[in-house]
Records
---
Amino acid sequence: MNSADSESLARRLLAAGYVEDSLDRADVAILNTCVIRQASEDRVYSKLHELREWKTPERTIAVTGCLVGKEGDGLRGRFPHLDAVVPIGDYEPFIASLESRYDYSQGESLPHAGRTGVSHYVRVIQGCDHNCTFCIVPRVRGREKHVPIDMVVAECRAAVADGAKEIVLLGQNVDDYHDPDGRGGLAALVREVERIPGVKRLRFMTSHPQDLEVELLEVMAASGVVCRELQLPIQSGDDTVLKRMARGYQTRHYRAIIERARMLMPDLGLVTDVIVGFPGESEQAYLNTRALVDELEFDVVHIAMYSPRPGTFAATRMADDVPHEEKLRRLNDLLALSREIAARKTSRWVGRDVEVLVEGRDELQRPFGRIRQGKRAIVLRGGDVQAGDVIDIRVMQATAGQLLGLQIPTNSEPAA
Ligand code: SF4
């Protein structure tokens, strides 16, 4: 979501004639911030302290993103060298103030397509109507606002014309999407976007177990464009903890979704988020989470140690009663398990032929990209392959994090 916001602001600035440059040559520094965890917020403060040295009367420092939703103009009192506090998505007054200060109308403008790259992120919902007790998002991003289908489609068409090959539909809870004019939910939107000529891949994130509909799974299974990957946070594998988190589902419901999804798409890529050390998480509750992670065999588990976010229900009403060392032990234990599972699952791809959307080249100049199930893949000896190409490879090797394969020539066997 933050990447999409950065891209949207960058596009607007590029269109106004600004160019991206290194900090030592720049006139303006903009921090797009995240406050989902205390560590993210602390990084912003430390960067703002560092920028004190950089700041001169001719230079501008601005902050946007979730920290603005949380702290607002109070930030300027705390950091007097900060020039602008820019609310998420409300960039025009800030850009107008820059334009009155710096004249870049004759500046060198970067090509639009360079920013878009292979993937284009489209925000289809802003904010969230859920109230998970640990989460600060509803407070900093507000209640849901849904973008009409026609506007999303228009943005996707423009991005494809600019060179994008993959569209990623974004929402804090993307499954809750509905067209404000009653033209349907996420499944309807996905059907519209996949029909746009030139869209080679379509993904969406993040899903919510309470809102994900079977119709969407059926659309994914039937499509040659929609990726077979679900980003479906479970947060805990223990029903009492899920209840205290106010997630609105139980583990049996989550299991049923995965069962249905895998029935429709046996090779589905599955990514989840887990919080360890949530208030009241007993050893048994943690073991229940561990058992569920083991049982469901996720491809990727993003694991976070619980940290209270001021202003959330959990921070104000629940004791942060799992000691830090214990949270760390659970985090490391779950990390080790999830890596073992990821390695096992990735090895199952060896010998199979997969389709890769090439995104660029790695530090060894090998083309890399993703398969439709979300795994990163590297093309060995892929001399002529370009970013944006969709190619077939035969997987020769696998590590926990990636697949390595040889391109399959259109007529048959992989090049030796
Ligand atoms: S659904 Fe996601 S964004 Fe919304 S409150 Fe819950 S965790 Fe936060």
---
Amino acid sequence: MPELTLSLLSVRDVAERVREFTLAAPDGAKLPGFAAGAHVEVRLPDGETRPYSLVDLDATAAGPDRYVLGVLLERDSRGGSRHMHALQPGDTLTLSAPKNSFALAEGAAPALLIAGGIGITPIVSMATALKAEGRPYRMVYAGRHAGAMAFADVLRDHHGAALTLHHDDVAGGPLPLAPIIQSAAPETHIYVCGPRAMIEAAREAATAAGFTPEQVHFELFEQAALQTGDQPFEVEIASTGQVFTVPADKTIIEALEDEGIDLIYDCQRGDCGICQTGLLEGEADHRDVVLTDAERAANTLIHICVSRARSARLKLDL
Ligand code: FES
């Protein structure tokens, strides 16, 4: 699908380090519609892309004439959020048409929406859609403190008693996920968007409460592939015997693409599972949220968009 070139209509601060960007076609034309949970891939000046969820606060997703994004300025931004936060009204952005890897399940089952920090952006659109369709839902939105929580006021207005806000500083700690998940009806679908620890805790609590994996949907909202102290390591391609070095500042995918190897991937955050690759030798440093604890322990699969190595070399089934 061709990329869209849109103009930035407005930029405003909506929370600490969070800006809302409103985009429209230069000629005011209608934009491709999208379903709740969708995102666009924004192209950066260096050619890389960053995914940002489409925020739908008022049920215009089906026939929008503008797109709204909410972007957190990451403290260790590798360029995406820093570029976004430097934009001014009138600037132009190139982006993909909407894609959706975090859609609401079909049917009338109740929904439990759980958002942490900037993970609220797709959850906003889900709550809007559920309310518009008259489907039962509950939304829980957690942040470090009130000033860090984007869209909280408008969500309170739109969703009233369906919304619970959790401020870590007031509560004295993070959102207690287990009792929230345990109190959901057995047929509930649970949607979680936030940092890795929240997703892992929610999946664990949902499993313990008897929810099936098909009832638990999640999207990771952090660029966590690289960490301070990361070291280079080698990867061996099993089919050819080639060995490449993955530098400390690149992911396995980035390093292999630099060598001209074609790979299949999508989210590059470690939550979609598309880049899952067989691991034949070596020990992985798993940084995805896809694998279960048992799968991690088995050490036979790796998500090469984010995970790295604990051993000097990994032999990949490629
Ligand atoms: S590309 Fe999505 S998990 Fe790796």
